[in-house]
Design goal:
Number of strands: 9
Shape: globular
Low-confidence stretches: 11-29
Oligomer: single chain
Radius of gyration: 19 Å
Order of helices and strands: HHEEEEEEHEEE
Number of helices: 3
Length: about 140
């Protein structure tokens, strides 16, 4: 009986810890956070933990999430478009596409950017910084224009 009471206390502690952690995650995605995420131009700052390097005269890639489910942006050479979904701290990008121009100096960056967007499953916003995550790891960092 004493051993089962001890196991019950440990189980209850784990359930309470899970509840507290999940509640904290939900608070990060309140209405103000969602409003900040939408209709803001987010300029690419880093990919995979490394700051982006732009050739002289090149414009930084960016994206904007339009209210509803549409994404517009610029990959470094081409206009980008697609869809997104959000639920809590989760975000996903689908149907990503773009115009078909070729820009020798920025195509590799554009390819890495759009590829990374396709892997994203979560996000956090800290002030003017948007971090897009995959499995809890930061893959794309953008800053408000």
């Amino acid at each position: 009986p004493i051993a089962s009471a001890s196991r019950m206390k440990k189980s209850l502690a784990l359930v309470l810890l899970s509840f507290v952690l999940s509640s904290h995650t939900c608070n990060k995605t309140d209405a103000a956070t969602m409003a900040s995420l939408m209709n803001t131009q987010w300029n690419l700052q880093s990919l995979g933990g490394s700051a982006i390097q732009l050739p002289s005269g090149a414009k930084a890639p960016w994206l904007q999430l339009v209210d509803g489910s549409s994404l517009v942006g610029f990959g470094g050479c081409n206009k980008l478009m697609g869809s997104y979904t959000t639920e809590g701290a989760h975000i996903g990008f689908t149907n990503l596409g773009g115009t078909k121009m070729f820009c020798e100096n920025t195509m590799e960056l554009e390819r890495k950017f759009t590829s990374a967007l396709g892997t994203v499953d979560g996000y956090t916003i800290d002030g003017s910084t948007l971090k897009l995550m995959q499995g809890g790891s930061e893959v794309v960092v953008l800053v408000k224009q």
